[in-house]
TrEMBL record:
It catalyses: dCMP + ATP = dCDP + ADP; CMP + ATP = CDP + ADP. NCBIfam families: cmk. GO terms for biological process: nucleobase-containing small molecule interconversion; pyrimidine nucleotide metabolic process. Keywords: ATP-binding, Cytoplasm, Kinase, Nucleotide-binding, Transferase. It is found in: Cytoplasm. This is Cytidylate kinase. Its EC number is 2.7.4.25. ATP binds at residues 12-20. PANTHER family: CYTIDYLATE KINASE (PTHR21299:SF2), CYTIDYLATE KINASE/PANTOATE-BETA-ALANINE LIGASE (PTHR21299). The keyword Transferase applies.
Length: 217
């Protein structure tokens, strides 16, 4: 398959390892990596920072139209300011799924994600890439893991970044995010019928990456 026709969609629940694996594959295959979850985190960050009234749809739409989100070398720029390191806080973890299910927010984000993908050879991860954002992707994968392992991964990530949160609390938040993501009306999290299912429970990052690359190549 020609490289200039490759687009890879990776979907799955929170903490499954999508972003880490997608970044490795992007480097290996020289593809543009698009972290859609980080894009939703960026808009959540700005909504919380600016105390935007989510019940006022007209003002929210105007706010979205005036917001600029870019991805440069894997880093997230919000209105031309680098904010990647600010996006993995417990506060954003708590609110991002609720904000991401707002229809006009999703519509704007999907438009932006498709625009980026149209101009690059991409690997994109998120909740609805293979089903909604890139329905014609050349390769589709659905990555998951047990709730216990996903919670432990997120807990470890928070500890490394200096945030202290109880493991049981982290697991409860992930379970709530799973519920929101799978039950929302707009673009719910689900495996596309053509996506390859990979359960990463007990697997190393290298093992998962090698498995996905074996399907692509």
């Amino acid at each position: 398959m020609s490289l200039n026709k490759i687009s890879i969609a990776i979907d799955g629940p929170a903490g499954a390892g999508k972003s880490t694996i997608a970044k490795l594959i992007a480097r290996t295959m020289n593809l543009t990596y698009i972290d859609t979850g980080a894009m939703y985190r960026a808009i959540t960050f700005k909504i919380l920072r600016d105390r935007i009234d989510l019940s006022n749809e007209i003002k929210l739409l105007d706010f979205l139209n005036q917001t600029k989100i870019d991805i440069v070398n894997g880093e997230i720029l919000l209105d031309d300011l680098l904010i990647t390191e600010k996006l993995r806080t417990p506060e954003i973890n708590h609110y991002v799924s609720n904000i991401a299910q707002i229809p006009i927010v999703r519509k704007k984000m999907v438009e932006l994600q498709r625009r980026i993908a149209a101009n690059h050879n991409v690997i994109m991860d998120g909740r609805d890439i293979g089903t909604t954002v890139l329905p014609n992707a050349t390769h589709k994968f659905f990555i998951t893991a047990s709730i216990e392992e996903r919670a432990q991964r997120r807990y470890n990530e928070l500890c490394i970044k200096g945030f202290h949160q109880d493991l049981q609390e982290v697991q409860a938040e992930i379970e709530q995010r799973d519920k929101i993501d799978t039950e929302r009306t707009i673009s719910p999290l689900k495996k596309h019928e053509n996506a390859i299912l990979i359960d990463t429970t007990g697997m190393t990052i290298e093992e998962v990456t090698d498995k996905i690359l074996s399907y692509i190549k």
